[in-house]
Structures are given as C-alpha cells and as structure tokens.
Amino acid sequence: MGSTTEPTELIDRFGMETVKLLWDSVSRETVQWLRNRHFGFLQLDCLLIHGSSVGVSDELTPETPPWQMLDRLQRVEANSLFCGRSGQVFEYVLQGGSVNSSVMTLDSQQPMQTMTAPKRRVVGVGNVGREPGKATYTLYSPNSGLAEGEALRDRLEFKTVYYGEKKGFAN
C-alpha cells in the first residue's frame, strides 16, 4: 500500500503465503481506493497517522528516544502526533526549549543562531482486538475548560472497554 508496488515489508513480516492470502481476499477496486487515501489527517497542529511521518510501519512507543520523536514531529510541523501502529495508549511529552549555536572557522566566527522548539507530544491512541475482549482508546478535546473560569487547555483521556463475557468500562 506504500509508494512501491511490491509489499516487501508485509512479506518480510508475515511471509509470502499470508500476503498472497490477503491479496486474494481484497478486491482490486478496494486496493486502488486504499492507495488513493491520505497518509494521515492534519488539523490545527495535530496529525493523526497510523505509523509516523516516516512511514506506516514506523512504530513509536514510550521507549522511543526523544531525538527520534522530535524528528517525526518536525517532519510534519505538528505539535501533537497521534499514532496507532504500536497499539499502546501513552502520552510522550517533549518539553520546549532552545539551542544556541555558531560556527567558528580559522578566519572568523559566525553570528550566534538560536533555534527554538515549542512543547510537543506524541500520543499512542490504543487498539481494538490485539487482546481479545479488550479495547483501548484515547479521547482528545482541544481547548476545553474543565470548570467555569478555568483556563482553556487540551484534555487527553485514556480509556479501556472490556467486551464479551466481562463487559464494561475501566480506567
């Protein structure tokens, strides 16, 4: 489904037999429709995407190094990246800051440059079906005040729903 016509990542991960079974199960019309879909949804300063700004199979988790998270966010100029590839629910916050740099040669020193990065975050949105009978998901409400007179702020909640024999909500 990517930019190449060969499903090399799928074959490497699941094997040729499984990929062929998938290919034979999905109509060519559906494959073409999927190829024409957008890679993700960018609204306000938030990007919703399956993997990351690098690719669909890029799996971001709470263990991903900060420099890698920042790279994925800067590629799309988003302050919040919502991703689902890992299947986990998490909030990974990168605090804002700045870096001063200059270049010194044998002849001269260049003026100092300051690069500033705002506070950013990566949010794992959860999954349905990886663990039978359990679904995890994320609720995001931008600029919502919790009580009258309280300053507006983003609200993020993680939820779990159990289905089947043991049904209901849990935190």
UniProtKB/TrEMBL annotation:
UniProt-listed SUPFAM superfamilies: Metallo-dependent phosphatases
InterPro entries to which the protein is assigned, alphabetical: Metallo-depent_PP-like
The protein, known as: Uncharacterized protein
Organism (species): Crocosphaera watsonii WH 8501
